[in-house]
Amino acid sequence: MFTYFLLLNSVYFFSQMHSPSSSPLDDVNLGPSANPHARPTDFDFLAVIGKGTFGKVLLAKLKADHKFYAVKVLQKKVILKKKEQKNIMAERNVLLKSLKHPFLVRLHYSFQTAEKLYFVLDYVNGGELFFHLQRERCFSEPRARFYAAEVASAIGYLHSLNIVYRDLKPENLLLDCQGHVVLTDFGLCKEGVEPEGTTSTFCGTPEYLAPEVLRKEPYDRTVDWWCLGAVLYEMIYSLPPFYSRDVGEMYDGILHKPLPLPPGKSDAVCSLLVGLLQKDQHRRLGAIADFLEIKNHTFFSPINWDDLYHKRITPPYNPNVKGPADTQHIDPEFTREMVPNSVSRTPEFNASTSSNNAFNGFSFVGSEDISDSSQT
Predict the structure, then answer these.
(1) Where does the chain bind ATP (predicted)?
(2) Is 311 within any annotated ligand binding site?
(3) Domains of the chain, with CATH numbers?
(4) 329 in Cβ contact with 131 (< 8 Å)
(5) pLDDT tens digit string along 283-311?
C-alpha cells in the first residue's frame, strides 16, 4: 500500500544510546512506546503491504491473541546513514499523542533487535482515499463532506496539541473497515507551533503546497487548511486545484491564478473552497479561530460534530472488507512478495526500494522530493 510506503520514510529513531560509548546499532531509547518483552517471533508475518527507503511494512498476526497489525520493520543503519533521526523522532511523538483521536492511526508499541526497529500499528485495510478517488474520479458532495469533516476533526485535534501536519493529501488518508477516515504518516509534522507561531521549512507535496510555502515565507497552521481545501477540491473535481503536469505552471497557478470553480457544484462547497484556498494565509478560513471556523461553515451544517467524533454517522461508502486480514485494497505489487515464516529469514531490505505507484506527488523537505533532517 502506497501510504504505508510513505510512512516508512518517517518513523521514530532516537540516536541517544544507553551509554555514550555504545554503537549506533545497539539499543535505542524508544521512550514510552517501548515494549521490552516483545520479539519478532511473537508474530506470524503474512504479507508485504508496503516498502520504502528504511525497510518494509508487513501484515502480521500476533500469535498470542491472533489479532492483525501493520508492523513496520526499519533498519537502524539506513536511518543513521540518511540522517533521519530528527524527523523520525517527531513522527514517533505524534503517534503517541494520536491515541486519543478516532481518525488518527494508532501506534500500539515498538521494540527492536540489534539491527532493526519494529513499530506495531493498526492495520487499516479499507484502502487509501486516493485509490478510491482514482477509481471513481470524484465523489458526491455529501460523501466529500463526510470525509472532509473527519479529516478536519483530526487536523483540529493536532492543532490543539500545537502540531502542524503539513502533508495532507489523499494518499495519507486511509479508510477503515467501516469506511471512516484514518489519517496516517506524521513524518512532516512540526511540533510546538503555538496559535500565533510560524515555521519555515520548505516541505510538503507539490500538488498541495500552499502559496506561502512556495514563496518560502514563514507560515502558520493555516497551511493545513489550504491542504484540506486542496483535498476537498480534488474529491469534488477529480484533480487538485491548479494541477498541471508542468510543475512550474502548477506553481504559477498556486501563486498567481484565481481558483477555477467549474459550474455544477453548490454555493456552499464553492464558498468553502474559496475560503480554504485563499492565497493570503491571514485571510484564509481558519486564520482566526482555527478549526471552529471550519466547523461553523455552512457546507458542514448537515454534520453533527459530536456524532461524527463518536462514529455515530454511517459512512457513505463501505469498503466491504472481508475480515481483519483482508488485503484486497493493498497494491498487489507488495502482496505478491513472499514473506518467510521464520523471522530470522526475513529478507534484508534494500535502501533503494521504492513504490511504482503511478502518482508522482511525493512528500519532501527542502528542495528534494525526499525528507532530509533539517526540520526547523
Answers:
(1) 81
(2) no
(3) 2-125+322-363 (3.30.200.20), 129-309 (1.10.510.10)
(4) yes
(5) 999 999 999 999 999 999 999 999 999 99
